[in-house]
From TrEMBL:
This is Response regulator receiver domain-containing protein. Residues 8-124 form the Response regulatory domain. Transmembrane segments: none annotated. Pfam families: Response_reg (PF00072). The lineage of its organism: Bacteria, Pseudomonadati, Bacteroidota, Cytophagia, Cytophagales. The keyword Glycoprotein does not apply. Keywords: Phosphoprotein. The modification 4-aspartylphosphate is found at residue 58.
Length: 129
């Protein structure tokens, strides 16, 4: 059982290895859900009875990148905190997403487990009010 079972995190990445690494690093802390594509993630958000507190999406994925996915998801679920994970660093599209308040923050790969844990817990505390 995770330390914070009430904190549900959806991680979206088209690479199975990345999904595995994320789950392995955070499953003892949070309730982790994964999706291999933005379309799968959108379907999961629509079908999940208990919505995630946080969604973290990879930036570069086929058919729909992370910012495009978050735009769609946030238009329906604005109570979720959204973040981008990127292996390619800060770019103008991520900057625009931050300025438009689509994402709260971005993380770089390889990621810092402690940094992401703190951000997830902070997002949960903000939502809990």
């Amino acid at each position: 059982m995770p330390q914070y079972p009430e904190i549900r995190v959806l991680y979206v990445d088209d690479e199975k290895d990345n999904l595995f690494v994320f789950q392995a690093n955070f499953q003892r802390k949070f309730n982790i859900i994964t999706a291999e594509s933005p379309l799968t993630a959108l379907k999961q958000l629509d079908e999940e009875r208990e919505r995630p507190v946080v969604v973290i999406s990879d930036m570069r994925m086929p058919k729909m990148n992370g910012v495009q996915f978050i735009k769609k998801a946030k238009s329906k679920y604005d109570d979720i905190s959204f973040f981008i994970m990127t292996g390619f660093g800060f770019n103008p599209e991520i900057e625009e997403a931050m300025e438009a308040n689509l994402i709260d923050r971005y993380f770089t790969k390889p990621f810092n487990v402690n940094e992401i844990e703190e951000v997830i817990i902070d997002a949960w505390k903000r939502q809990a009010g």
